[in-house]
Amino acid sequence: MRLWAVAGVVTLALAGCGGGDSGPMRGQLMHPEQLEPADFATSGLPAHFGDHDPHEWEGLTPALYSVHGVDAARYQGPIDWYSARAHGVHFAWLKATEGGNYIDPGFEINAPRARAAGVPVGAYHFYYFCRTPKEQAEWFIENVPRVKGDLPPVLDMEWNHQSRTCNRVPDPATVRAEIMTFVDIVSRHYRTAPVIYTTPDFYADNDLGSLPGLEFWLRSVAGHPSERYPGERWSFWQYTGTGVARGIGGTVDLNTFAGTPETWSVWLAQRAQ
């Protein structure tokens, strides 16, 4: 298995994103000031973050890492990025597109606000198995501007068993080929390669570890990635989908970067657009 390294210096110290339907933003959101203090005191999480459905973390916990961020979509509504940044949010990926005809309205709202607040922000695409990778790459490019300093794009690869419009389940070789087609097209446009977000079942079902040169963002909400993806190198770990963060309404996915603040600066310098 080929392992991806961040500038040759990031190591494992000591991961959803998710798709969804095309409905409107939620009208009623629970804002952080409405939450009880206990929501921000979950064992194993870093300061300022909490979890509505906490895992009992032991051993290698998210709190061991220094650089944390969020991924969000329309569900979170407008985000107070100044508050989020002041309370430990170092980066954010926002859902921008899905398939070949859907745009998440949250991206247009929150991406400019994140940039204004000094939070590095990027866009992610939720993959739809009933469109070609070329169609989807072109749809992403059409709707996500190339902005200097933004995070690299993300390709969200996971099974979408709840889709009402697509029941295609391609074989592993086809999945890997479609990933690489998308990566090639998007890399050439943004001049930086996408990060690949995935889940334990999708990673194992499709032998994603056999793909060369990919940088992974791994979901693992009940254990360290080393337990669910043995031997794989990762740059980002999604450790909960029911997180609490200041400035963000409702629940939000929480993530950490694999390295130190110093290697985070190196990663940004090399991977930002």
Q: How would you summarize the topology of this molecule?
A:
Layout: E1 49-51, E2 68-72, H1 81-86, E3 89-98, E4 102-103, H2 105-116, E5 121-126, H3 133-143, E6 154-157, H4 172-190, E7 195-198, H5 200-205, E8 216-219, H6 225-228, E9 236-245, E10 252-257, H7 261-271
Parallel strand pairs: 2-3, 3-5, 5-6, 6-7, 7-8, 8-9
Antiparallel strand pairs: 1-9, 2-10, 3-4, 9-10
Helix pairs in contact: 3-4
Indicate the overall shape: globular
Do you know the CATH topology?
A: TIM Barrel
Strand segment count: 10
CATH architecture: Alpha-Beta Barrel
| Spatial strand order of the main sheet | 2-3-5-6-7-8-9-10
Keywords:
alpha/beta; 25% helix; 273 residues; TIM Barrel; 10 strands; disordered N terminus; single chain; eight-stranded mixed β-barrel
Descriptive notes:
This protein is α/β, with parallel strands linked by helices and 273 residues long. It has a single domain, classed as TIM Barrel, CATH 3.20.20.80. Helices cover 25% and strands 20% of the residues. It contains seven helices and ten strands. It has helices at residues 81-86, 105-116, 133-143, 172-190, 200-205, 225-228, 261-271, and strands at residues 49-51, 68-72, 89-98, 102-103, 121-126, 154-157, 195-198, 216-219, 236-245, 252-257. The chain has an eight-stranded mixed β-barrel. Strand 5, helix 3 (133-143) and strand 6 form a beta-alpha-beta unit. Helix 3 (133-143) runs parallel beside helix 4. The protein is globular, with a radius of gyration of 17 Å. The chain starts with 48 loop residues before the first strand and ends with a helix.
